[in-house]
Amino acid sequence: MDLISVSAGYLVIVFFLGLVYLCLGAYWFIEAAISISLRFEVPKLLVGSIIMSLATTSPELMVSVISVLKGQVGLALGNVFGSFVANIGLVLGVAGLIRPIKVSYIIIHRQIPFMIAALMVLVISSLGPYIEMWEVVAMLAGLVGWLIWLVCNVQGDEGIPDMSLDCAWWVTVVWFVMGVASMQWGSGLIIASAESLALVFGVKPYVVGLTVVAVGTSLPELASGVYGAIRGESSLVLGNVLGANVLLLLLVLPVIFLTSSTHVVLSDKLFDYLFMGLTSVFLWLFSMGFDQEWEINRYEAVIMLSVFGVYQFLLLR
Fold first, then answer.
1. Cellular location of this protein (predicted)?
2. Which tens digit of pLDDT belongs to each residue from 148-188?
3. Which residues are within 8 A (CB) of 90 and not within 5 positions of it... i.e. 6 or more apart?
4. Going from the N-terminus, what domains does the chain have, and what CATH number goes with each?
């Protein structure tokens, strides 16, 4: 879609239209994923960590792949790094304001440390001249190992999601297909409009990816986070966010590296790594709790939202 010659106002409309398609597609996709999980009685933490996170990360994956194929690697990388910070600072911040988020032992001692370890591996890999193939393979291997560990170690006593299953199997299939198609169409609109807006306002595509596109593609996580907080489903909320961030690091980034026609250099992304690490450490500390309650309370949620706000301000100033 060629939007280079149209007005900025029209580009904004196209961008938000793309977000509507993207979020609608993500909603259908999430409904299909949860429906499948209920049929097979999958525990809550697995639903959030694998099924819902795969569904809610699909917009980031779609946007990133289309961006790379169009030669906008910076936009794809910005989308990944910005979404990582938004998932913790924005999504958990808003969810924690609605209701304090209870944190289980496995999340504190296994899930969060693994996410931080994956981030540290990325930072170390970025110190080289470019990301090499063996590093991509190592990331994908880490993802497979994480998925196998989750399936083998998360016990059924986490409980099955408290949701009703009142649809036929063919409805689930329709939701799934419509969700994928809608997300693909929405991603195309977002990329085309964001690319043109960057040219109109003289903003680097990487910054557009870190801010507007990242927040836009994190809306499915935000929607599921708000829904889960209202329902008091802390395992779903945290599992979704942590799972999505692991997928961003160990699935979406490797896909970007593999589809890019040129070597991807990350040695200049230390500013973004700083905030990715800061939000991750805050999440770990708040989860353990200075009050020994193992929950993210409203005061801590405000701090996480503030860190996200500072990050966005520094990017756009």
1. Membrane
2. 888 887 655 455 555 555 567 778 788 878 877 887 788 77
3. 215, 218, 222, 305, 308
4. 8-159+167-316 (1.20.1420.30)
What stretches of 50-158 show up as alpha helix (H) in DSSP?
53-69, 73-86, 93-98, 105-106, 112-126, 133-153
Q: Where are the beta strands (DSSP E) in the chain?
A: 101-102, 295-296
Q: Which residues is 101 bridged to in the sheet?
A: 296
Closest-CA residue to 56 (of 188, 230, 239, 232)? 239
Beta-carbon contacts of residue 317 (< 8 Å; ≥ 6 apart): none
| 152 three-state secondary structure | helix
How confident is the model at residue 166, as a pLDDT?
Answer: 59
C-alpha distances out from residue 153 to 106, 110, 114, 265, 284, Å: 9, 10, 14, 36, 21
What averages of pLDDT result for each successive group of 10 residues across the chain (317 residues)? 65 85 76 72 72 80 87 90 94 92 84 94 90 94 91 61 62 80 78 76 82 80 78 80 93 94 89 95 84 78 94 87
d(CA 158, CA 173): 27
- Compute the half-sphere exposure of residue 308: CA atoms within 13 Å on the CB side of its CA: 26
**Which of these, 272, 33, 41, 243, lies nearest to 150 by C-alpha position?**
243
Give the Cβ contact number of residue 171 at 10 Å: 13
> Residue 277: in which H helix or E strand, if any?
helix 270-288
Predicted TM-score (pTM) of this structure? 0.83
* Residue 82 tokens, joined: 């910005």
- Read off the amino acid at residue 110: R
Which residue has 């399936």 as its token pair?
A: 151
